[in-house]
Write a structure and sequence with these properties.
By secondary structure, the protein is of the alpha/beta class. It contains 13 helices and 15 strands. Strands 1, 2, 3, 4, 5, 6, 13, 14 and 15 form a 9-stranded mixed sheet that branches. Strands 9-11-7-12 form a 4-stranded antiparallel sheet. It has a two-stranded antiparallel ribbon with strand order 8-10.
């Protein structure tokens, strides 16, 4: 997820002054193994949990993060990173998250929504309810980080930071569970599968009846890893554009007539049809939007045939459409469908193509009042110089579904880029690998403590302050 930062100069200064030197702060101990753990992972976690200024980040209890808590979160991160699971197959990841939540006193419900979704409930007497969302799934990307804890699953990688999100939310729950005297209410932790396919949130809310079963929260919170300087957070500025675009995912099937490659006059080549369709789709945004209306149409996958000497009988396209308004999304998807059908008809397809919308998510507009409150506590936590303004991004999320019906939602970015890579990129070296890239590698030592405390302090901003007389209300 590539993010445009309004305060780029501040971001640069923060990276230069972060006190981490030129190293990237990532774990160096132990190689991943297939037994569910990381060989040497405890040593690596110990080093990360005690290195640099990571333990200097203040917790909701106004003290440094406890080293055992941070070590536990790092160990979980290393394990999850080494064992990623694709959308719809997150059973092991859900197991690990459920076990950690149970350790911290949560009542855990599994298979919410029919998939691997789960909900952990931490009750501490009467009061507001805050929902913390984390995603479970990884991406079909082959890792190229060279890390000792790199993915052990061929062709699958946590290239979007969901492993970091899970580790951070477990650390935040641990902090909240250990400081019950300071707050009252209920914390809901939602482990969401299938975020990368934009289908998991709706499955939890509709099929799993999330709010009917667990109550409508007073606020929903989430954060996302981004290639910003590690040790920083970024919020949407008040009055600015949506933080993320809305999106529509489409699967198109083009029908041809298969046969021998030596007899093209007897066949109807769907590969050629797919090629002309992709080129035609590339003009849709320019033709359907005004210059000031930011929109993106991407054909991310083309699949056809198995061998070079066989003309296949069909080709498949996967595309995404991104825009910041619902009318723009509607207009673009209609234009894309016209283009697909027109190209098929022009080449004499034996039957009309399939055109199926598989997922849709609205633009992400964090609640202004809640965002302002959360931003204030983040600035108190890190200092105003490390809380940045973030311009709108064409990246998309299905998180906005949790805000349906007027539930206030706050969402911010968690910087993950270490000082060394950031400075190298500034000096004209290789650009910082963004989310979804094979080289995406968060600086765990700097990013994870901030992610833990950012979630915990934001949650406490929603929950009622506790009192000494309320200690007996926990359940």
């Amino acid at each position: 997820m590539r993010c445009a930062v309004v305060t780029a100069a501040r971001a640069t200064k923060n990276a230069d002054d972060d006190g981490h030197g030129d190293g990237d702060g990532r774990a160096t101990g132990g190689a991943a193994t297939g037994d569910g753990h990381t060989a040497g992972g405890k040593a690596a976690a110990d080093g990360l949990a005690t290195g640099g200024d990571a333990v200097g980040v203040t917790s909701p209890a106004s003290g440094p993060l406890p080293r055992p808590l941070l070590r536990s979160a790092v160990e979980l991160y290393l394990d999850l990173h080494a064992h990623p699971e694709l959308s719809g197959h997150e059973h092991r990841t859900a197991d690990r998250l459920a076990a950690r939540l149970a350790e911290h006193g949560c009542t855990v419900t599994r298979s919410v929504g029919g998939g691997h979704g789960l909900v952990g409930v931490l009750r501490n007497g009467p009061g507001p309810t805050v929902l913390l969302r984390t995603e479970l799934d990884a991406l079909p990307v082959t890792e190229a980080t060279g890390l000792p804890y790199a993915s052990t699953v061929p062709g699958v990688m946590h290239a979007c930071g969901h492993d970091l999100h899970i580790a951070a939310v477990t650390g935040a729950v641990a902090l909240l569970a250990a400081s019950r005297d300071g707050w009252r209410g209920t914390v809901l932790v939602v482990g969401q599968p299938e975020e990368e396919t934009l289908s998991g949130a709706r499955s939890l809310l509709e099929d799993g009846r999330l709010y009917e079963r667990f109550g409508v929260p007073d606020a929903v919170l989430a954060q996302h890893a981004a290639p910003l300087p590690a040790g920083t957070l970024a919020h949407a500025p008040a009055g600015g554009p949506p933080l993320m675009a809305g999106s529509i995912a489409v699967e198109a099937v083009l029908h041809g007539r298969g046969g021998h490659a030596a007899t093209p006059h007897l066949n109807l080549d769907p590969v050629l049809m797919a090629a002309t369709t992709v080129l035609r789709l590339r003009t849709v945004v320019a033709e359907e939007t005004v210059a000031a209306e930011h929109a993106v149409l991407t054909v991310g996958s083309v699949r056809a045939g198995e061998r070079g000497n066989i003309t296949p009988d069909h080709a498949e396209l996967s595309l995404t459409i991104r825009a910041f308004t619902e009318p723009a999304l509607d207009r673009l998807v209609a234009a894309a469908e016209r283009a697909v059908r027109a190209e098929a008809a022009a080449l004499g397809a034996p039957r009309p193509p399939g055109f199926t919308v598989t997922a849709r998510s609205p633009a992400l507009r964090p609640d202004p009042a809640l965002t302002a409150r959360v931003r204030r506590v983040h600035e108190a936590l890190l200092g105003p110089g490390r809380v940045l303004d973030l311009a709108g991004s064409a990246a998309t999320e299905d998180f906005p579904h949790f805000a349906a019906g007027g539930v206030p939602a706050a969402y911010w970015m968690l910087g993950t880029t270490g000082a060394g890579p950031w400075r190298a990129a500034r000096a004209g070296g290789d650009p910082v690998p963004p989310n979804h890239a094979p080289g995406f590698a968060p600086d765990v030592r700097a990013a994870l403590p901030v992610g833990i405390t950012a979630l915990a302090t934001a949650a406490r901003q929603v929950l009622d302050p506790g009192a000494a007389g309320d200690r007996g209300t926990a359940s």
